[in-house]
Give the backbone structure.
Amino acid sequence: MFIGHFGAALAAKPFAPRASLGTLIAAAQLVDLVWPVLLLLGAERVIIRPGDTAFTPLEFVSYPWTHSLLMVLAWAALFGVVYRARTHDLSGAWVIAALVVSHWVLDFVTHRPDLPLAFGATKVGLGLWNSRPGTIAVEGALFSAGVYLYARTTQPRNRRGRWALVGLVVLLVALYFANQGPPPPSPTAIGVVGLFGALFIPWGAWIDRNRFVRPVTD
């Protein structure tokens, strides 16, 4: 799943209005931000195998440090505690932690049974990726809902606040469909490209600085 995770980050804004969109994106994408680093270091493995599922040519051989349920819960607790310590926003910290866990939940829906529960434990996954139309429909719905909730919760302060959000949405959709092209040349290329995912964090923070949370009305 790709844009579905961004949809979750955007959708979380009404529940954590004090949290920057950059922080929400970092939480929702946390394990996929750490994964390229471990992939390049050889600590986790992926194989390019076209046909592994209908939607992606990647076979995720081993990624317990980032994508096992046990470690995702640990990452969630760590991120939530750090956010709470820095902001004193307790309710936001719970949302941040839930966003980290949401990554595993959404991957559980899309992946074939390759997500470990813990190190060396049973692997699970519902396999939505076996259906390309189904995957696009579900991810598209999640992303659309997230964009709607974020746009309804916030309001642009200026033109930057409006067009920076539009630009993010357009780029994410373009990348989503571009990723369905030819398979990547190597796992190393996947890791290098994956590192650039961190750039969405400052972009999200920039959007939030140019928007404000709409006042609640009865």
